[in-house]
Specification:
This is Diguanylate cyclase. The chain has 322 residues and is an alpha+beta fold. 16% of the residues lie in helices and 33% in strands. The chain is built from five helices and 16 strands. The N and C termini lie far apart (51 Å).
Length: 322
């Protein structure tokens, strides 16, 4: 395989009410809203990007939140769990914090020398916090509600649920350049490069599970990193040459994207690391204002009128009292 991703770029999910979504990810999980924009393919809904201070690739969970979206069904052909990386020995703090916030959480479990805490967001999206024994050097977004010593460092991994693993494994290794790293019963882990937080995917084989339905509370797609546009374009040619149905290169303003499905059904994306989220607003002001791409700017008034108002922290650094 001539091309190898360095890890996860972002995960995009479907949400329900946008205000409830923002409250949970900003105030409960302590992430930063690094971009408030719209779904470029359906500008009647927001596209909200949550991540670290600057929205670096590998820290991002993004949402298309529709207030009246029906609930999805978690099952095969989907990314069924999105996991964040947190420091070792912080899961006790997180369990207490989430419970105080009214979130139902699991007991802490251990697998592959990692400790994990699982829960769901208000729309039912399956999430996990994972403490990796070797730590995570990425800097957190430090907020009053979630201090830096416990804060999320970025994405840890995603779990793909499939009815059989062989074809999906082939796409991960031959299409994305990942390598098989471990197996725990019906769970197979693949890693980019040296692995570690932000560079892993688990393939969970559940042949008797129902097929998933993408709607509120489910993942829409999983994006993997490409260093630049030239690599992405060559990668696209490589995939199409292998018979994979790949979209044209799409301008997402903050990165360029191509999309395709792995054989198990999950929609995947290859996204460029550049140009990033500070191309249209300063770092200190990320997420404060609605940003539109040039081709939608002439319709700003109409688009804004159709979007529900969002009450966001003035400095995107939430301060509340318990």
């Amino acid at each position: 395989m001539p091309f190898q991703t360095s890890g996860l770029h972002h995960v995009t999910a479907i949400g329900g009410d946008p205000q409830r979504n923002a409250d949970f990810y900003l105030r409960t999980l302590g992430l930063r809203l690094v971009k408030t924009t719209v779904n470029f393919d359906d500008p009647g809904t927001y596209h909200l990007y949550y991540g670290d201070e600057s929205g670096k690739p590998g820290t991002l969970l993004t949402f298309f939140p529709w207030r009246d979206a029906p609930s999805g069904r978690i099952g095969t052909g989907q990314a069924t769990t999105t996991s964040f990386s947190v420091p070792e020995h912080s899961l006790g703090w997180w369990k207490q914090h989430l419970e105080i916030s009214g979130v139902e959480v699991s007991q802490v479990t251990s697998r592959d020398d990692e400790e994990t805490l699982t829960f769901r967001d208000p729309d039912g999206l399956q999430l996990a916090l994972v403490a990796h024994p070797q730590g995570d050097p990425r800097d957190p977004w430090d907020t009053p509600l979630v201090p830096g010593e416990h804060a999320i460092r970025g994405l840890h991994s995603v779990t793909l649920s499939v009815s059989r693993e062989d074809a999906t494994a082939g796409m991960l290794t031959e299409g994305l350049g990942l390598s098989f790293s471990s197996q725990d019963s019906n769970r197979f882990r693949f890693s980019a490069g040296e692995g570690g937080p932000g560079a892993m995917v688990d393939v969970l084989v559940t042949p008797d599970a129902p097929k998933g339905l993408v709607a509120a509370g489910t993942v829409h797609h999983v994006a993997w990193r490409a260093p630049d546009e030239a690599t992405q374009a060559a990668w696209r040619e490589e995939l199409t040459g292998r018979g994979v149905g790949v979209t044209s290169i799409m301008d997402r303003q903050y990165f360029r994207s191509i999309y395709f499905r792995e054989p198990g059904g999950t929609l995947l994306e290859i996204a460029t690391d550049q140009p990033g989220f500070s191309i249209d607003e300063p770092l200190l002001e990320l997420g404060r204002a609605l940003k539109l791409p040039p081709w939608l700017e002439p319709n700003r008034e109409q688009i804004q009128a159709a979007l529900p108002a969002l009450d966001l922290p003035a400095e995107n650094n939430p301060v509340t009292t318990r």
